[in-house]
Each structure stands twice: as C-alpha cells, then as structure tokens.
C-alpha cells in the first residue's frame, strides 16, 4: 500500500490511507508493520550535514519512541540503470501505521520533524507501508 505524503508528516484529515493489512498473529505475537520512507535532500543540504543530523537527532530520538521496534537509515548510491531517484531510504518497523502517525505528533518527535522539514525535499518524499506476507 502506498501513501504519497512526506514520511515524517502526519496525515491531515481527508488524506487517510487505505486500511493497512491487519497485524496478524504469529506464535501469539503481534506482527509489526513496516514503513519505508524514500526521499531526496533539499538543494544545498550536503550528505555530510544530513548524516550528522540523522545519527545525532533522527536515529537517536526515533529509536526511543514506544511504537518503534526498529529504525534503520540508508544512503542510496544508485539504481538499476542509473542514479537513484532518492538519496535516502528509511526502514522503520512500528507497531501499527496509526501508532506511527500519532508518534509523529508528539513533543518528543518535534526536533525530528523540524529537522526533516529543514533538510528533506518534501515533494520527493514517498512513504509506503504494509505487513509481511506470512
């Protein structure tokens, strides 16, 4: 399922995504939801500047959020046949899409959201989410 909103922006009313695949249970445990966020950096933002912010702000704060099970950030080097249309992909495991959207509005995430707005070309950002087929 795809959601064409910037990955660190909560959805606004009227922009609700389709219902996510229910988090089924495996061995009595609730399955998590995967969120992938892909985006380009704004013109003038260097890779070094972004990496420093990612390590010291984004990753530090996001990993501490109760709804986040894991959070990994990758710099993209290219794609099959040429350059990548994005600079970064985030691999986020959360308890649910709704919990992630709520998390983005908390005071604890304010510095992350502000940094994202400063560094990321929001028009290039795409977020997809779903559950494992098992």
From TrEMBL:
A Pfam family this protein belongs to?
HapK
Record-linked SUPFAM superfamilies: Dimeric alpha+beta barrel
Enumerate the transmembrane spans: none
Region described as Disordered:
1-28
What is the name of the protein in this document?
A: REDY-like protein HapK
Naturally occurring in which organism (per UniProt): Actinomadura syzygii
């Amino acid at each position: 399922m795809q959601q064409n909103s910037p990955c660190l922006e909560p959805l606004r009313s009227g922009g609700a995504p389709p219902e996510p695949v229910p988090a089924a249970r495996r061995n009595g445990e609730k399955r998590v939801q995967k969120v992938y966020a892909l985006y380009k950096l704004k013109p003038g933002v260097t890779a070094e500047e972004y990496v420093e912010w990612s390590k010291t702000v984004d990753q530090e704060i996001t990993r501490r959020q109760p709804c986040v099970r894991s959070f990994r950030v990758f710099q993209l080097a290219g794609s099959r046949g040429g350059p990548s249309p994005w600079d970064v992909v985030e691999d986020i495991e959360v308890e649910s899409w709704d919990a992630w959207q709520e998390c983005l509005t908390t005071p604890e995430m304010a510095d992350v959201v502000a940094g994202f707005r400063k560094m990321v070309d929001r028009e290039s950002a795409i977020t997809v989410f779903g559950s494992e087929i098992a």
